[in-house]
Inverse folding.
């Protein structure tokens, strides 16, 4: 089973590398950039993609677009994080609070009765 997992991982890396090669070949075409971004999102490889764009950030010809793509990756990662955040906590029904308060009052009255009875 481990060999199946490594074969799958190798295929994902091969696909990613092929997409990246296409991005470099057609740098001015938006479609390869979009395709690799979608692939990176599906396979949780945004960090790898950001690293590859970051390596090109100082390039005179590719730097501006690389920075723009890094900003897009940050936005995509933020959206993914917000989409998976924990839903807000729901309010406890007032009946539960009232029941707990009633139990506490009963216990306190019983304790007060026991303390007064022993005197």
């Amino acid at each position: 089973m481990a060999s199946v997992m490594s074969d799958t991982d190798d295929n994902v890396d091969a696909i990613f590398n092929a997409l990246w090669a296409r991005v470099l070949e057609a740098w001015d075409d938006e479609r390869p950039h979009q395709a690799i971004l979608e692939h990176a999102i599906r396979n949780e490889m945004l960090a790898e993609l950001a690293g590859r764009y970051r390596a090109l950030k100082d390039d005179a010809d590719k730097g501006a677009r690389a920075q723009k793509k890094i900003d897009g990756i940050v936005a995509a990662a933020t959206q993914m994080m917000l989409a998976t955040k924990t839903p807000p906590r729901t309010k406890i029904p007032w009946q539960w609070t009232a029941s707990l308060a009633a139990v506490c009052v009963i216990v306190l009255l019983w304790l007060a009765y026991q303390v007064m009875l022993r005197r």
